[in-house]
Amino acid sequence: MARRGDRLLFAAAALLFGITGAAAEDAPVNTLRDLFERLQTCWKPPPPNKARPLDITVVVSFKRSGNILGHPRITYETPGASENDRLQYRIAVMEALQRCTPMPFTDAMAGAAAGRPFAIQFRTRKTSPPTQERRA
Question: Tens digit of pLDDT for each residue in 90-100?
């Protein structure tokens, strides 16, 4: 089992030598952090010409094999978003889940994650509006 320092070293080497995300995607998912990071690497929001940015949350469960259990469920979308924006982001979420599954769980993570719901947030909006504050 790789130590945290070893994983950081591998990630730095991957960046240095230009290894694509595919090599990082081959690493097993052993923690909740690994799970959420993996899902974020699969996330590709719609381009701005197709939909305005919005935040979306999906609840998904996995089998021990890393495949999706049941049907993912959208539980949050930015209020006031148009139907087109919602549709484009729903499609992007499902595509991200398809790209990431089956999730390469370690045996320990497979046992811990199997059947449990995970709320995955995909944030694309800016969290706070720019301020007009001036400093002296």
Answer: 999 999 999 99
Q: How many CB atoms lie within 10 A of CB 41?
A: 13
Q: 69 in a domain, yes or no?
A: yes
Given the structure tokens 């690497």, which residue do they identify?
Answer: 41
Q: Are 39 and 100 in contact (CB under 8 A)?
A: yes
pLDDT tens, 99-119?
A: 999 999 999 999 999 999 999
Q: How far is the C-alpha of 121 from the C-alpha of 124, rounded, in Å?
A: 10
**Strand-strand pairing, 68-77 and 56-62:** antiparallel
Q: What is the CATH number of the domain that holds 47?
A: 3.30.1150
Q: What is the pTM of this model?
A: 0.71
Tokens at 76, concatenated: 């949050």
CB-based contact 76:55 (threshold 8 Å): yes
